[in-house]
Structure formats: structure tokens, C-alpha cells
Specification:
The complex is a heterodimer of chains A (295) and B (426).
Chain A: H1 2-19, H2 35-53, H3 56-63, E1 65-67, E2 77-78, H4 81-88, H5 91-121, H6 128-140, H7 143-156, H8 161-186, H9 191-198, H10 203-232, H11 235-239, H12 248-256, H13 262-284
Antiparallel strand pairs in A: 1-2
Helix pairs in contact in A: 3-13, 4-13, 5-8, 5-10, 5-12, 6-8, 8-10, 9-10, 10-13, 12-13
Chain B: H1 14-17, H2 20-37, H3 51-58, E1 62-68, H4 72-87, E2 92-98, H5 101-113, E3 124-127, H6 129-137, H7 160-163, E4 164-165, E5 168-169, E6 174-181, E7 183-187, H8 198-207, H9 220-233, H10 246-263, H11 278-286, E8 292-295, H12 301-306, E9 314-317, E10 325-331, H13 339-349, H14 352-359, H15 377-384, H16 395-398, H17 410-423
Parallel strand pairs in B: 1-2, 1-3
Antiparallel strand pairs in B: 3-10, 4-5, 6-10, 7-8, 7-9
Helix pairs in contact in B: 2-5, 3-13, 4-13, 9-10, 9-17, 10-17
Classes of the chains: A mainly alpha (295), B alpha+beta (426).
Chain lengths: 295, 426
């Protein structure tokens, strides 16, 4: 008897745990549209999806087109010439360079952005407004002038080109990570941390077991933005990198500046689009990491 | 596999279009900056007594070759043929693909401005014309080094194509790599009786409205077309002084622009718009919108026909009055950290084996800079045994009556006049 009761209790506790809403969790819609509105909603969703997906159709077709000239609507012959040419052009190494660079940028810019946002979200920060303006200034400055100027400084300071690229890209990424974390901290309740501390948790324990799991979805989102900054950058890698880093955008730009390369450019472009899409899928599924869990 | 040379002026794709204004600014800024800072860093001469000195110093060096990367055949040649040959001599050759050769110059200028005069990231650049002149004015090139290269022995030292680069004396500041010949291209299926002179081409265009156009200046190919018509209207290249002067320009250019103005209504879309780049021109031709086009890189036509980008009835038109010719080169920035290695690569690229391999239309099809008469019979036989292209005639036919290029100052003057007289009058 007592055994079964405790089983029921445990099930209820587990259900509650599953249903417990935490900051960052998606809420339940207040109302669902019905009838005509529902149809309109579905139609508009499909249209928007098409609008995003259609530009990729020619890209996919070109990727597998060995030859395709007007006025043919579809490729005249299908094959993997584009893939072979892209690989011969160094696509694999460039993909690796791009991935490494973006991950490093995300790994640095995300914690920095989170710390900046946490400090800014506390009112009382001295010169808070000035700090905000400084943090966001990279978004406002004309990129080319800034990059060209900073490159002279980096060269004079004998900063290795690879380190220089990372430094500059981190600065470019910080406004994005800071802003996305500011939004998260605006909705964050410090009471969770305080409760943990009151119950005897050390500040380190509260950070790792309570705070970080609660802001994990926001961290994932801002890391994604920082990743994109590194992944899509052309200018900084070209100017500051000095040929030491040959990333995908560099290969795509140089390849696309010729003619007859359409299918290899399409393969390269697709390979540049896919990783962010996968990451976006992962990020959109991110939930808070079960705060308070004892290991 | 594009029809393009490394000295292109404009990046062409939509992806790059956003960056274009920035790059233009950068080029201007870099030139302006270098003008202030370059005189403090005099170009270093070669520090090597003889070639074996160079070979010893080159062993183990890694050379970064910055070259326009829009040509798959060119990329493959460097990666698969030239790089292994350099590796056999202890030099690692790495290609840095760029969308515009000016990117390499900007890098060098910035390094010089920052006082980095001995360890630059650019070791070797595929270059000619305007970019060479800009770099030379800023003292950005290493000079007097080509005389050390053993393989320069087979290069003629009186060939005007190789001693002057668009009117700028080469002065041992760049080593020749290959030659190019401006060529008109037509579809033999739709143009059964092609014209034989440049004036004849313009008359053909007027007789076949909408089937001809040319890239808008300052595209490299478009501006070469302006110079071709200038020669033709002036009664031959002999009548146009190579050195630019306002007097010569005022005397000769009106005939050119009057002729082009008369031609405009017969162009593709009545001349209301022009292809912005030679890639767009080639695309129009590939899609059958026009029947005749032009290129400064006929070497790559064979591959474009073979892979189906261009119709297989494509032929190069040889004209009696001859066409413009030029050469492209390897330049070593004065601040390169691997000068010896870069010299070894430039020397290797001039070897008979490399020049023969590069001239093969299935590899790259670039015309050799070697003086065939100076070669041994066996070496000459290698060039004669090269497969003939069904599209492009051999270089001696193509370069018959070759016209020298005008000095680089002519180019912006003609481009600007075209823009105000022809493009603005649409």
C-alpha cells in the first residue's frame, strides 16, 4: 500500500517536473485560430516558407548540373562535376577553417556578451549608458573603414593574422551576443539564484547548477549569432587574415568572380548554408537544462 | 572556367556587389596611404649573389601565391602541376584565391604602411597592367630580380610585350608567365560569313541589330574593345602614340566615340544597357542572345566549349588589322618574407615543361612567353606537338599583326569619355 502511494507520488512529481515552466520555455497559446483564420494562417505560413525555400531551388539544381544553358528550364545533364570542382578548389579545407573560426568566435563572444549583459541588466552600473554605446559601436561603424584602420594597428602590433581575425570578429559579434543576452536577463528572475544561495549553495554551485541551466537557451541563441558572424564573414578574414585563413566565403567569392563555375559555386554556397540551418534547428529546440538537478 | 585575366577591374557576381563600393574605397585609400608612407621604405634589391644562393635560401620556404581564383583550370594547374614541381625543389606553394587582384595589393600596401617590410603575407602575385603600375608607383615590388632566373634565358629581351606592361617598363620587377591576345569570338552557326576587320565587325553589328554588344567600360574587356576600335578608327595602331597626351586624346578619340555613337542603336537592347562585365557578356553569348563577343583570355574558350558552357560552333575570329596583345606576370612584393622561394616558383613556371603543360588546352591553354626560336629543337617540338584546339587558332595565327597595348594612362581617359559620351547618352 505504502509502496504504491510512493509510486503515485513519484509519477506526479515527475509529471510536475515535466510540466514546470521555466524562463525561456515556450508558453501555451492563449487562443487558437479557427475556420477562415486558421486557413489563412496555414496558407500564409506556406507562402512564407516558399519565399525562403525558393531561392535554394536553383542552387540545388545548379549543384548537380554538369551543363545548363538558356533556354533550357532544367539542367541538360546531371552529375557531380560541381562537387568535384568545389573539392578541387579546396572546399574541404575551407569548410574546416570556417567551422573552426566560427566556433572559436562563438566560444569567446558568448560568455563575454553574457557577462556584459548581466552587468548592464543591473541598474546601478556606473556609466552604464556609455558602456552600452561602446559595446554596440561595432554595429554602427562602417565595417570597411574600421577594418582597414584596425588592420594597420594589428600589423604594427605584430599580432599574428589568425589571432587578429579572431579578435576583430569577436568584437563584431559582441553586440549581437550582448543584445540577445540582455533580452534574456530582462526576463530572468534573480530570485532563483538567491533561493539557492539561501539554501546554502556556494556561488559557484548556484552559477553552474541554477543560473547557467536557466539561461542555456538564451546562451545557445547568442552563440548561434556569434557563430554566424564568423561563418559569414568575408571582409575581416580577407583583410586582416592576410591569406592565412582561407574560409568558405573567400573561396565562394573568388570562384564566383569567374564564369563557367556556376555548379561548383552552387555546391560551395549550399555547403555554406547547411551548417547554420542545422544549428538553427538545434537552437530552436533548446530548453533549459533541468536546473537544480543533482548529479 | 572563365574567360578572365588577373588584372580584372571589377568583381562581377551579385554576392560581391555589396562589397564593390568598399573595395573601390579601399583601393583609393590604400593608394593614398601608400603614397604617404611608401617613400620611407625603399624597395629592397636582391640579396643574392647567384642562383645557387637563391636555391639554398629557398629550401623549406612556403610561398603564398595570391591569384584571382575565378578560373578553375588555372587553380587546378597551379595546385596539381606547378605546386608539385616547386615542392621537388623544396618550396611549398600555397595558393590564396582572391576575387580581385587589388585585394593582394591592398594587403601589401597596408603592411608597408604599418612598417612590416620583411615578413609580408604576400609572396607572389599574378599581375599585370594597372595593378603592376600602381604597385610600382608605390615601390611595392621587388625589382631587378628576374635577371637571376636561369629560365629567363629562353625569354626574348626585345619582345615589347614582355619589356613593357601596358606602357610601364617592367625593369625586372616582374617575371613573365603567359601571353594573352584580345580576340573576337563568333558562333559559326549563326554567322556563316564572319567579317575580317574590326570595322567589318561594327558593320556586321549594324546589319544584324541586337546581336552584338560589348561590356561597359571600365570593365577590362570593354575597355580593351574601346582601344581596339580606337586603333581601327585611327587607321592602325601606328597612328596612336603609346604615351598618353591630352593632344593625342583630343585628336583621336572623337572619331572613336562618333563611331560608337552611330553603332549604339544596333547593339543588344539598342544599347540602352550594357553587360557590366566580360562574364555577363559571355553569358549573353552562351545563352544565344548575341552572336559575337570578345575576350582577352581566348585560351580558356576550348574548355568552355568542351564543358558545354558555349555552343560547339564557337570560333575565334582573326582580324586582318590584328588585335591587342599583352602578357601577365609574377610580381614579388618588396616585403615578402620568402623572396627566394618566390623566385624559385617564378623560375619553375618559366621552364619548358611548365610552359608546355600550361599551354595544353586541356590543362589551361595559356600561351607561352618563351621565345620558341631560342629553344632547342627537342623543346620546340614539345610545343608543336600540343593538341590543336578546334576553337582557338594557334598563337602565331592569333597574334599575327599583334597590336601593342597603349600606356596605362590611356585607359581611364577612354573609359571616362565613354561613360560621359556613350553611356550617359542612352
Amino acid at each position: 500500500m505504502t509502496l504504491s502511494t510512493s509510486n503515485v507520488d513519484m509519477e506526479r512529481a515527475q509529471r510536475e517536473q515535466r510540466e514546470r515552466r521555466m524562463p525561456g520555455d515556450a508558453g501555451r497559446p492563449l487562443s487558437q485560430s479557427r475556420g477562415v483564420m486558421r486557413t489563412a494562417r496555414i496558407v500564409s505560413t506556406v507562402l512564407v516558407a516558399l519565399w525562403f525555400a525558393l531561392p535554394f531551388l536553383p542552387l540545388v539544381l545548379w549543384s548537380f548540373a554538369n551543363s545548363w544553358s538558356a533556354p533550357d528550364v532544367l539542367p541538360m545533364s546531371v552529375g557531380t562535376d560541381g562537387l568535384t570542382a568545389a573539392i578541387a578548389n579546396g572546399a574541404v579545407a575551407a569548410f574546416g577553417d570556417s567551422l573552426l573560426l566560427s566556433l572559436i568566435v562563438a566560444a569567446i563572444a558568448t560568455p563575454v556578451g553574457a557577462m556584459a549583459a548581466r552587468a548592464l541588466s543591473r541598474h546601478g552600473l556606473p556609466f552604464g549608458r556609455l558602456v552600452s554605446v561602446l559595446l554596440f559601436s561595432p554595429v554602427l561603424l562602417p565595417p570597411f573603414a574600421a577594418v582597414l584602420g584596425i588592420n594597420v594597428v594589428l600589423l604594427r602590433a605584430w599580432v599574428p593574422p589568425e589571432i587578429g581575425v579572431i579578435l576583430v570578429l569577436v568584437v563584431v559579434a559582441i553586440p549581437y551576443t550582448t543584445f540577445s543576452m540582455l533580452v534574456a536577463y530582462a526576463a530572468y528572475d534573480d530570485g532563483f539564484d538567491e533561493a539557492a544561495r539561501t539554501l546554502g549553495a556556494t556561488s559557484r554551485f548556484a552559477l553552474w547548477r541554477i543560473h547557467l541551466p536557466l539561461i542555456a537557451p538564451a546562451l545557445a541563441r547568442s552563440a548561434f549569432l556569434a557563430f554566424l558572424v564568423g561563418w559569414s564573414d568575408y571582409l575581416v578574414t580577407l583583410v586582416v587574415g592576410g591569406g592565412q585563413l582561407v574560409t568558405l566565403p573567400l573561396i565562394i567569392a573568388s570562384s564566383a568572380s569567374g564564369i563557367g563555375n556556376e555548379s561548383s559555386v552552387a555546391v560551395l554556397s549550399l555547403s555554406a548554408v547547411i551548417p547554420p540551418l542545422i544549428l538553427l534547428g538545434l537552437v530552436s529546440r533548446a530548453r533549459n537544462l533541468n536546473p537544480g538537478r543533482q548529479s | 572556367m572563365p574567360i578572365r585575366n588577373p588584372f580584372r577591374r571589377q568583381p562581377s557576381t551579385t554576392a560581391r556587389r555589396r562589397i564593390l563600393p568598399f573595395l573601390a574605397t579601399a583601393a583609393v585609400t590604400a593608394v593614398a596611404l601608400s603614397a604617404c608612407s611608401a617613400p620611407t621604405t625603399a624597395p629592397r634589391g636582391p640579396e643574392f649573389f647567384d642562383w645557387s644562393d637563391v636555391q639554398v635560401a629557398a629550401d623549406g620556404q612556403t610561398v603564398k601565391l595570391w591569384m584571382w581564383g575565378g578560373d578553375d583550370q588555372g587553380n587546378a594547374y597551379v595546385d596539381d602541376v606547378l605546386a608539385p614541381a616547386a615542392a621537388a625543389q623544396g618550396v611549398t606553394l600555397e595558393r590564396v584565391p582572391i576575387a580581385d587582384t587589388k585585394d593582394a595589393l591592398n594587403r601589401v600596401f597596408t603592411e608597408l604602411q604599418a612598417g612590416r617590410t620583411t615578413d609580408g603575407a604576400v609572396d607572389l602575385v599574378w599581375i599585370n597592367g594597372d595593378n603592376f603600375r600602381t604597385g610600382k608607383q608605390a615601390d611595392a615590388w621587388l625589382c631587378d630580380w628576374t635577371g637571376l632566373l636561369p629560365n629567363m634565358a629562353a625569354v626574348s629581351d626585345t619582345d615589347p610585350l614582355l619589356t613593357e606592361d601596358f606602357g610601364t617598363p617592367v625593369d625586372g620587377c616582374e617575371a613573365p608567365w603567359h601571353k594573352a591576345q584580345f580576340s573576337f569570338v563568333y558562333n559559326s552557326a549563326t554567322v556563316p560569313n564572319p567579317p575580317t576587320t574590326i570595322e567589318g565587325i561594327l558593320e556586321w553589328a549594324e546589319a544584324n541589330p541586337g546581336r552584338f554588344t560589348y561590356p561597359a567600360a571600365p570593365d577590362f574587356t570593354g575597355s580593351a574593345f574601346l582601344r581596339s576600335v580606337l586603333y581601327s578608327e585611327s587607321g592602325g595602331h601606328e597612328n596612336v602614340p603609346s604615351a598618353y597626351s591630352d593632344e593625342a586624346f583630343d585628336e583621336l578619340s572623337p572619331a572613336l566615340f562618333d563611331r560608337l555613337e552611330a553603332l549604339t542603336p544596333s547593339l543588344w537592347r539598342e544599347g540602352s544597357t550594357y553587360p557590366a562585365t566580360s562574364e555577363q557578356l559571355t553569358k549573353l553569348y552562351a545563352d544565344g542572345e548575341i552572336d559575337m563577343m570578345m575576350t582577352y583570355g581566348p585560351a580558356t574558350l576550348t574548355a568552355l566549349v568542351e564543358n558545354g558552357t558555349l555552343p560547339d560552333t564557337t570560333r575565334v575570329l582573326t582580324v586582318d588589322d590584328g588585335t591587342l596583345g599583352n602578357a601577365s606576370f609574377f610580381g614579388i612584393p618588396s616585403n615578402s618574407g620568402n623572396i627566394a622561394g618566390a623566385m624559385v616558383v617564378a623560375n619553375e613556371a618559366l621552364s619548358v615543361e611548365q610552359q608546355v603543360a600550361k599551354a595544353d588546352p586541356t590543362v589551361w591553354g595559356q600561351f607561352t612567353v618563351l621565345d620558341l626560336d631560342a629553344l632547342s629543337t627537342a623543346d620546340r617540338a614539345l610545343f608543336e606537338a600540343l593538341p590543336q584546339s578546334p576553337v582557338v587558332p594557334s598563337f602565331d595565327v592569333l597574334s599575327r599583326n599583334a597590336n601593342p597595348e597603349l600606356s596605362a594612362e590611356w585607359v581611364p581617359a577612354l573609359d571616362e569619355a565613354w561613360r560621359t559620351r556613350i553611356a550617359a547618352g542612352q
